[in-house]
Structure formats: C-alpha cells, structure tokens
Amino acid sequence: MDILAVNFGGIGDEILFLPALISLKKEFPDSNITLALEPRSKGIQSLTDIIDNTFLIDIKGGNKYFELLKLVFLARKNKFDMVFSSGGNKFISVLLFLTGIKQRYGYDTGKLSRLLLTKAVPLNKNQYACAMYHDLVKPVTNYKTELPEINVGSDEKIPNSVLIHPGVSKMSIKKGMIKTVSADVWTELINILIRNGKHVMLAGGPDDEEVIEYIRKNVKNKNFDDYYGKTASLKDLARLIAKSEKFICSDSAPLHIAAALRCETYAIFGPTDDKKLIPDFVKAVKAKDNCPLKPCLWDKCQTTCETLDCLKITADDIASIAGCYHG
C-alpha cells in the first residue's frame, strides 16, 4: 500500500498532521507513506519514522502552478493507492483528481469535491487541529490517534530547568500577524526566573536573531545557558525541549514539538485560538483583556490590530502562571 499525504504549511502544521499519519500506519502497517510538503518544513522527517518519503513542493515560491503540476507528475509516476489532502481550497479536489490516484480523500468544499473525491470529509475547524486533520482518515480507519508523537531519544530532565523560546516566524510578522510579547517582556521574564533560582536556558531559530540579541544585551543576570545557534537542526531543538522541566514559548512551531513530547509547556496566546492549537495539558498564557473579537486571527481577520490588548501580558504574569515566581 502506497499512500500520499498532502499538507502544506509550517513545521507546526506538519506536527499537528502527524496523528492522522500515525493512524494510517496502524491501519496499514506495511504501507509506505509519502508526505508532500513545503521545503521550509522538511525537518519534520527527522522527528518521526512514520514518513517514508517526502515531495518538496514550493507553493510559496515564484511559480505555484508549476509546483502543483510537479506534484501531479510525481503522484502519477509513483502510482499511489490513496491520497489525503488537508487543503481547504475548493480546487484541491481537482488537483487530487488529476493525480490519477484511485482513492482520494479531502475536505468537503462543495459539489465539485463530492463529485471528484472518493469521500469529501466535513471540515470542522472548531476543534483541536490534530482532530480536524484526523477527520480526513476516518473513512479508512477506526484507529484514533489523539496527539502527535515524535522520536528524539530519551534524556534525563535537567533539574529545575526552564527553557525559553521567545520567537515566532518572520513570515507571520511580515504578514502583520503579531503573536507574542515584546523582547522587553522576555528579558524581564529571564531576570525573574534567575532571581527565583531557576536554571534558565535560552533557545531560538534563525528567525529569532533580533529578539535573542536584545535579550543577550539587556538581561541583568547573565547566569543562563545560551543555546541560540547551537541547535543546528529541528531534532537538536526537540532534544533540548525534551530535557527541560518546563518550557515557555510563543504560539509557534516549538510549541507543537513540546506538546508532542508531553513537556510541561506554557505558551503565550493573544489573537489566536488556544483551544484549536493546543491539547488540554498545555497551559495558555493569556492577557486579562476584554477584547470582544478575541480570538480573532484567521477566523475574523488576517492581521492583528494596532492596540494588541490581547498581548498585554507581563513577565510577572508569565512566571506566576508557570509556577516559577515567588515574589
């Protein structure tokens, strides 16, 4: 059994998609699963043995239609038995039909999808994203995988440790999606944690250089472990998260890695909906604002507002919620 899964998005989206792939592997243990994804997310394969192969489809590059035709060509060439796509665009069903794959599964986007797909699955966005993606595989399996699972090996926790990952992707910032607190707040949070005797560790990705440099320059007590630039891969970051007793981060890809590792995690949430993006054991750190639109990002608007009342969260608030602040 050869299965093609199509899921475009960032690393976080690929992690949230993993439960669907895990259930497919349980149902078809001898299957080969190929994941078509964007090049920026190719590191997902280092975190799991569920994905056998990948197709890198750069739909955000210079020629989206050429890339989609490339996907059709690769799908026809490899003669898959099934294809599953998470896309909500009404033309996804046409794309899957063009692949020539006999069994095609995607979301119900209207009459065309019901005509061209083997099963057009109802799209329910009002649930945890893992469950939303998992609905795609319900027609072929009774297995239900609730949470992502990733493989990074087992390491002992560093006693009394708190790992801070303050960044979000530059792509979201360029699009006007502000989803985290300021560098000043992250700096003061580290000061508080160190004063309270915590073993503080700092990490970030290539997009986080500006906030990391600000923290390095302005934090009062330099007694923390600086791992920025030392986690050379997604798997290195996952291993560091696995070793931390507590993890404090933004609404970004590392959050989903931590959830997959079942790490004690505290995530900053402002304009986005925590109920759709985190499981129950992850704690959302939110402002006590009364914004009538919150959560607004994506469902109600495509960019954040100028006032950002939903992100008026202090370092004291974060440390207290994470159980790290004693006055």
In brief, what are we looking at here?
Helices cover 33% and strands 15% of the residues.
Based on helices, strands and strand pairing, what is the structural class? alpha/beta
Poorly predicted ranges: none
Give the number of DSSP strands.
12
Radius of gyration: 21 Å
Main sheet attributes: strand count, strand direction, barrel closure: 6 strands, parallel
Distance N to C terminus? 59 Å
- Please state the overall shape, judged from the principal axes of the Cα atoms: globular
Number of helices: 12
Widest sheet: strand ordering: 3-2-1-4-5-6
In CATH's first tier, which class of the largest domain applies? Alpha Beta
SSE order in H/E notation? Answer: EHEEHEHEHEHEHHEHEHEHEHEH
What is the mean predicted local confidence, pLDDT? 91
Strand content bin: 15-25%
Q: What's the architecture of the largest domain, going by CATH?
A: 3-Layer(aba) Sandwich
Tell me the CATH superfamily of the largest domain.
Glycogen Phosphorylase B
Helix percent band: 25-40%
CATH topology of the largest domain: Rossmann fold
Number of domains: 2
Q: How would you describe this protein?
A:
The chain is of the alpha/beta class and 327 residues long. It folds into two domains: 2-137, Glycogen Phosphorylase B (Rossmann fold, 3-Layer(aba) Sandwich); 161-321, Rossmann fold (3-Layer(aba) Sandwich). The protein is 33% helix and 15% strand. The protein is built from twelve helices and twelve strands. It has helices at 11-27, 64-78, 92-98, 111-116, 129-134, 170-174, 183-195, 209-218, 234-243, 253-260, 274-277, 315-321; strands at 2-6, 32-37, 53-56, 82-85, 103-107, 119-121, 161-165, 199-202, 225-226, 246-249, 264-268, 283-285. Helix 1 packs parallel to helix 10 (253-260) and helix 7 crosses helix 8 (209-218).
